Amino acid sequence: MQRLLDFSSHYRQIKSFYMRYERLLMPVTLVVGFLIDYFTFTSIRLTTTFALLLLYWLVLGATIVFIHFFDAGALPQKLKYLRLFAPLAIQFTFGALLGSSLVFYWLSGTLSVSWPIITIVVVLMASNDIFRHYFLNPIIQIGIYFFTTLSLLSLMLPFMFNSLGSWVFLLAGVLSIGIFYPFIVFLLPIKERRVKQKMLIGIFAVLLLMNVLYFTNIIPPIPLSLREAGLYHGIMVSRGSYIMQGEPETLWQRLIPGQTVHTKSGEKIYLYTAIFAPAKLQTTIVHHWQYYDPIKKDWVDRGLLSFAIVGGRKEGYKGYSFESDLEAGAWRIYVENERGQVLGRITFQVKRVKEKIELKETTR
């Protein structure tokens, strides 16, 4: 009897400590999950990153199932310590999985185009902290879990099949539904049929939204990423190296978007890009040149140049395009895949000059 009283007293003390510092523990676990995810992706091999993400995904699913079974009275009360700290596990794994989505969407796209999907992930991460109690709602919890699952499969399947075709994204959706339908209908111990119906409606709504974002090219072409891009006055390829002549820039000019390019009549301007792609993945990259026509007050196409790339190089696959005799004014170049998904956008101003242009040689 005394042991039972000591156990209850110990549990109350731990619960009191947890409730007192919950507001601090929750955001800390969220941030730690995101930071771990960011450094694993940028510093560690992708196979290790995928293994960690799968582990987070499994822990999250197991924790959700555990909470539902415990709250339904199907598990012994001696597991109440695990139940007490289960929300922290959910917070941590949600932070890691949402963080992975943010990192990949950010690195594989440009904010000017992919801002809707990036905003969604940022809002979910912020809500996971600010409105954390809502994330314990079964319907919201399952909806977010489904979103992270679809994002994770959309990232991993291109590596498995060495393809960025639309069928890969559709397959990710089919597999996600194939996982979650039996998960909701048969595994979760929820007796209210209406709750399960709302869960199913929620995951299908997420699937519909993601397909709309994908086929309108708002979702970037994960896992491609634009490692480097620059404008140059001349490019020469020698033994696999690119020798380029460009205008020198100060550190401040590099930090401010919107480079100014000085040109003479009839001169060529080159766009150089280095694009990371997974090993064995073959795809086509497009440089889409556009000029802002002040008379039409609209962007006008000035050229499309495409070239095939093969992934596997850590420093990225190099390629370039050029346009001649650029008009003075505003220009932009979209770096896209063949579907039109945007990896990056380079904006610049063209200024016509007659004097000699000072150039600096760079080798990549």
Q: Can you characterise this structure?
A:
This protein starts with a helix and ends with a strand. The chain has 364 residues and is of the alpha+beta class. It folds into 2 domains: 2-215, no CATH class; 225-363, Immunoglobulin-like (Sandwich), CATH 2.60.40. It has 9 helices and 11 strands. The strands form 3 sheets. A 5-stranded mixed beta sheet has the order 4-10-9-6-7, covered by helices on one side. Strands 1-5-8 form a 3-stranded antiparallel beta sheet, with no helix packed on it. The protein has a 3-stranded antiparallel beta sheet with strand order 2-3-11, with no helix packed on it. A hairpin with a 4-residue loop joins strand 6 and strand 7 (298-310). Residues 1-8 have low confidence and may be disordered. 52% of the residues lie in helices and 25% in strands.
Structural class: alpha+beta
The overall pLDDT, averaged over residues, is 82
Strand order of the largest sheet: 4-10-9-6-7
**Count of the separate structural domains:** 2
Shape: elongated
Unreliable segments of 5+ consecutive residues: 1-8
Strand content: 15-25%
H and E string:
HHHHHHHHEEEHEEEEEEEE
The biggest beta sheet is recorded as:
5 strands, mixed
Strand count: 11
| N-C termini distance | 75 Å
Rounded to an integer in angstroms, the radius of gyration calculated over CA atoms is 26 Å
> Into which percent range does the helicity of residues fall?
40-55%
Tally of DSSP helical segments: 9
Question: What's the quick description here?
Answer:
With 364 residues, the chain is α+β, with helices and mostly antiparallel strands. The chain contains nine helices and eleven strands.
